[in-house]
Amino acid sequence: MTPFKLTEELLQEIAELIDARKDDDLRDLMKEVHFADVAEIANELNEEQATYLIKLLDSDKTSDVLTELDEDVREAILNNLSSKEIAEELAELDTDDAADIIAELPKEIVQEVISEIEDREHARHIVDLLRYDENSAGGLMAKELVKVNENWTVLRCVKEMRAQAENVTRVHSIYVVDDEDKLKGRLSLKDLLTTSTTNPIKDVYIPQVDFVNVNEKPEEVAKIMSKYDLEAIPVVDEIGRLVGRITIDDIVDVIREEAEKDYQLAAGISQDVEADDSIWILTRARLPWLFLGLLGGLGAAAIMGGFEEMISKHAILFFFTPLIAAMAGNVGVQSSAIIVQGLANDDLKGSIGNRLIKEMFLALLNGFVLAVVLLFFTWFWKGTFVTALAISISLITVIVVAGIIGTFTPLFLHKRGIDPAIATGPFITTSNDIFGILIYFTIAKLLLGI
Amino acid sequence: MTPFKLTEELLQEIAELIDARKDDDLRDLMKEVHFADVAEIANELNEEQATYLIKLLDSDKTSDVLTELDEDVREAILNNLSSKEIAEELAELDTDDAADIIAELPKEIVQEVISEIEDREHARHIVDLLRYDENSAGGLMAKELVKVNENWTVLRCVKEMRAQAENVTRVHSIYVVDDEDKLKGRLSLKDLLTTSTTNPIKDVYIPQVDFVNVNEKPEEVAKIMSKYDLEAIPVVDEIGRLVGRITIDDIVDVIREEAEKDYQLAAGISQDVEADDSIWILTRARLPWLFLGLLGGLGAAAIMGGFEEMISKHAILFFFTPLIAAMAGNVGVQSSAIIVQGLANDDLKGSIGNRLIKEMFLALLNGFVLAVVLLFFTWFWKGTFVTALAISISLITVIVVAGIIGTFTPLFLHKRGIDPAIATGPFITTSNDIFGILIYFTIAKLLLGI
Q1: Does residue B377 sit at the A interface (CB-CB below 8 Å)?
Q2: What are the residues whose beta carbons fall under 8 Å from the beta carbon of B306, sequence distance 6 or more?
Q3: Is there a smaller number of Cβ atoms within 10 Å at the N or the C end of chain B?
Q4: pLDDT tens profile B318-353
């Protein structure tokens, strides 16, 4: 399969067909194009063209296109559709995707759109989903699932299941509930292919079933599903009633977003931004961290101002401040990144004390190797062994302290319930810059006896 | 579902049961424990205990446990098992997991282990898989899949499918092939539940099917599967024959590893290390980047040495070198991270030139705001407006240059086929440190006329 590639020529051709209103040619051209690729095309068209394309194609395709569009493009297109047209799109979508789109609509029209949905059960399900916090299992789940009552026979179960399966894109598992809708267990599709139809469900279902609570955090759901290799997980409410189902494709997005967020925080970018966002959005995401860096730099300048009297005798010390600051920052970022990743994957065992001792040895080892190189360089360059020794000893000390700060900070934040990912990047770099320079000049002053 | 939590007490209890050889109690205790959790337990036991536990439990459970173990623990346990015992474990696994384990075994025993596998077809499949590069679709795929011939009737298809489904944990899709085993299309399970059994397959299958080539890179497979929301994708060889299938759970691991690798590179950690690795492994992963940082620092020191004559008149300039270096590093990391992420997600459009112009405006805007703050701080602190102005103008210039380097480098590396993720982190920080300080002192010299 050669992945679809959106070329300038294709985009041009589509835009021209739209402008010339060549509806049949357009429909023909788009027939074989996957909805995710139609979304890619619509993202690049202007608002009027994109809206025309969405209105032209069948809603069983365009509904999926809508879920894949960039948020601003979707908003613009939905603005140009009537409530009835939006309702037709939502009718084609799974309840979770439909609820996500409704949550983005202006409040005034939500009620009208919902009232235009012909399938009243679908509408009820969507309304149910709107109540859940976006950042919870309830906010991720869909209402589409196949469930059977434990008191049914396999025969009745197969019949009911066929009817339900009509509305469910991917079946995965058949969930078994009791008369109060409480989740009791599951039936696999494979069992169904091989079991005789005369058995009662009670005797054939598997009582062991993984599930999550509606209030569970998406990251936790992702951890459970990927640890236990699940492709779908049922969601229950506070009293154990089956209320929905989360499938792995939604969780893939959670994993990706989580990883991207940590990466962006480490790089000093807050908010979820992309390269194609406006300069204004990018500035809002980047400037606060740069400002933090500026404050750190001003702090470092102030500290160095306090050691100004050393400049006449030991100017060389000042030449090495960028080196000391950079090493403190690098070591801090390295050690914090390893801890943050360990916390994210839930595979940190043992006490904080042991971690700090290990990091200390690690930093001592790294610091020693680097300090020897620095010692010889400085000694040969400027010829004063004592100064070179003072700078090298400072480097080891700074690396050890930076490693300890880098290890301790994320562990501490995690203990206090704060996302440790903020501890990597500019935050740790800046504080390590200041500590590093303070330690450096203090040690130099002590050793050189100024 | 409350996720399983491995406590010290539970671990203690299990270790004691093993040491006292209380087999029945152990079996009872472990019966309800998921294999992924048994692996967590075995990772924490000593080698002798872990081996005992694996030998005690049924191989339909322990085979899955083996796939989840830490690599070093698995190696130790397999060392203590006979070829026959290993073969029994492999017999229970899907071909892809079995091949992964065989690839880790010492060469001398591979042949013996394979000859001990009773199911000869299973053994043949495993041997087939060993031929593929680990870093390709072929290395990810399993041989387990359900396929039917286009010339069969639906009735025969259902029969054959039932037999095949016995060996396939999750069916997902039924693939349709011709007499030469070439992939023609697919049947959905849902279709199967609702189609009459008298039709020939030729008339009912869906000819549109996504697939990947055996040589496709895992990252590309991940992109295709997550873009098109696929839960499984068939793999074909160079002449279009269906040779295997990749399922989404393997791809979740690829996505996670990819994200972690980029994050670690950005943090200056090469190789795939974890917090629990040995100090030696961690040093090997961290020291090279620190050494790069050291070289950068030495370069910065040498540059500053070249401006030594300025120190008597404008000592204040030297106080701001950490600030300049830090800002250059931060801006570089921010802009490169956004580009790296955009490249990873395949959503960068437009030319390199446009990106650089955008980044220049962005950097100018951010730089201007920060420079104004710096100007007033320096002016009030040291009272010389011209020096303060020189430092501030340098800051803006350095930020713009750092932003351009940060944007250009990953785009350039990507064009040359090199992983752009190495451009974030220490690499960009170090080069920006040097450029930043060089620009800073040059501009200061020009403006202050020394």
Answers
A1: yes
A2: B441
A3: C
A4: 899 999 998 998 899 888 888 888 888 777 777 778
